[in-house]
Structure formats: C-alpha cells, structure tokens
Protein: ATP-dependent 6-phosphofructokinase
Organism: Neglectibacter timonensis
Amino acid sequence: MGAKSIAVLTSGGDAPGMNAAVRAVVRSGLSFGMKVYGVMRGYNGLLNGDLHEMSMRSVSDIIQHGGTALFTARSPEFNTPEGVQKAAATCRNLGIDGVVVIGGDGSFRGARDLTGAGVLCIGIPGTIDNDIACTDYTIGYDTALNTAMEMIDRIRDTTESHDRCSVVEVMGRRCGDIALHTGIAVGAIATLVPEIPYDFQKDIVDRMKAAQATGKKHFIVVVAEGVGKTQEITERIQKETGIESRATILGHVQRGGSPTLRDRVVASRMGYHAVELLQKSVGNRVVAMKGEQIVDFDITEALNMPRVFDENLYRISAKLSI
Ligand SMILES: Nc1ncnc2c1ncn2[C@@H]1O[C@H](COP(=O)(O)OP(=O)(O)OP(=O)(O)O)[C@@H](O)[C@H]1O
Ligand SMILES: O=P(O)(O)OC[C@H]1O[C@](O)(CO)[C@@H](O)[C@@H]1O
Ligand SMILES: [Mg+2]
C-alpha cells in the first residue's frame, strides 16, 4: 500500500531545473493514480496551508524556465519542533502521506524531521552549489557552471583588450566546485576555493609573474564566494604585480536562466525516482546520482557523509593554466 496522496515543494535557494523536477513529481504521481499537491514557498506553504491540487496541465510549459514555479523560501518557523508538528498536521488534515522536498542540505534536515513527525519525505538535491556529499550531482549545477563560464568569457574580452587581470567571484559558500570547474573552463591563472588554503605570493603572484615572463599579458583569477575578500585580493594583485586589476562578483546571475539539457534530464529522472519510493511507502531518503545511476540514501546517513573535494583535479587545473 503506497502513498495515495503526495505533495511537492521547493526550499532554500532556487536552482535551474527545479521546475523539471516538480513537473516529474506531479506527472509521475498522477500516472501512479496519486493525488498530488503543489506547496507554495517551501515549508511555509505547509505552515500556512498554501498548497493546491495539481493536474497534468499545472506543470505545462515550466520545464524550460529557471527559478521555481512553486516559489521558494527559507522558513525559520518550520525550523522549530512546533513548526514541524504544525506542518505534519497540515499533511494529516489533507490526507497527504508523502512529501517530496527539492532543495539543499538544510531542506533535507527539515525532511528528516517531518518524516519523524509521521509524514514520509523524500529529498531531491536542488542547488547550484553541488555541495551535497551523497550525490555526484545537484540539479542546477550544470546551468550555473555554463552561465559562469559564459560571463567570464565576456569579462575576458575586455580583460584581454586592456592587458588587465580580472578577479571573478563565483557562488559557493562552503563548496569550491563551481570555482574549480569554471576556473578550468576559462583557463584561470589561479582558482581559490574554501577547501584548500592558498599562499598569496606562491599561488597567485608567482604564477602571474612566471606566465608574464613567457609573454602572457592578461589574467583571470577565479575566487569562490566562501573564500571572500574579492575586492581586497584584486587590490593586492594590482599592488604586488603592477598589473591593472578589476573585481567582478557574478552573484545571482548564476542562479537564473533556462536550465541546460543535463539539468532537465537529471531533474526528471530524480523526480520520477522520488515518487517510485513513495509508491513503495519508503520515506526518509535522499535521491542521488552516482556516476550515471539514480540511487537513494537514508537522509541521516546522507547528511553525515563527508564531502570530498576533487584535489587531484585542482592540481591538474594549476598545471594547465600557466
Ligand atoms: N536543522 C533543520 N531542521 C529542520 N528544518 C531545517 C533545518 N535546517 C533547515 N531547515 C529548513 O529548510 C529550509 C532551507 O534550509 P537552508 O536555508 O539551509 O537551504 P538549503 O536547503 O540548504 O538550500 P541552499 O543552501 O542550497 O540554499 C530552512 O529555512 C528551514 O525551514
Ligand atoms: O540568495 P541567498 O539567500 O542570498 O543565498 C545565496 C547562497 O545560495 C546559493 O546560491 C546556493 O546555496 C549559494 O551559492 C549562495 O551563497
Ligand atoms: Mg545549504
């Protein structure tokens, strides 16, 4: 006897591809004969009763859009024992026995708590940061990478024309994956990530001077948001190398835009997998990608897994950009 009535919500920072996941959950649920509710603005919708029944057509024409048609929120009220009980009561009153939560690690903690309060929850990793340890891939990451790369290519045109150095900050509070991969894709002379301490002289100035000695005249330095101090780093580069330098913080442009094919397809597969679990009355799981396979893990185990930064790729990137 699987879940008969389910709900789907998006929570935490939005990510391109969340709509594809919502669409997949709604249409898979309906095709399994379930009643499906769309919850507005993350956990807030469960607290305020702001949710409505979805049809096949409720999710038409959203797969190609960034953002989330269900809106999203960070909900301090839900993040209390009383908030979790109130959300569970909303589910009970409407007969909802399963909830699919599309979001990041914080949202999964919420999903674990809500499962503890008697509502089967499944998490789907949706965040541009790729900072969820249990999965090789989070929905939105590929679109964000491509956006960051395209933006830096544009910055490079003007950087090259002026023989300058551009220091570009990309998103990633605790995770350097966006910085590492865009750094490789744009040929950054240095990439700074929160996972690896850096030596300003050796890792930035000496590398720039060595490249300058072989004829290089313009430079890109990529800095992850979690490293911070982007303006300060830029001024120091100019002072210590004599190369005119400019700082750009890419910011939320990385969170928007039409999702790439990869984000749409992975989101669709994860959405279907989440509903299959609920159909088997399985809850407290996070859907994940391992290689090209869609798998799932216990939420608590998933949250306790250590994140592994690809230090080997980081070393390779330093060898290639010189
Ligand atoms: N420990 C927790 N227990 C219960 N609920 C939580 C917990 N942590 C977070 N939440 C709920 O999940 C919401 C989203 O969490 P958070 O703001 O950390 O974003 P996230 O899901 O990690 O996404 P991202 O970091 O990618 O923006 C919170 O506003 C809160 O309602
Ligand atoms: O939009 P907000 O709430 O300022 O959050 C920004 C954060 O969200 C993310 O985009 C996704 O977690 C981070 O990279 C960034 O630090
Ligand atoms: Mg998070």
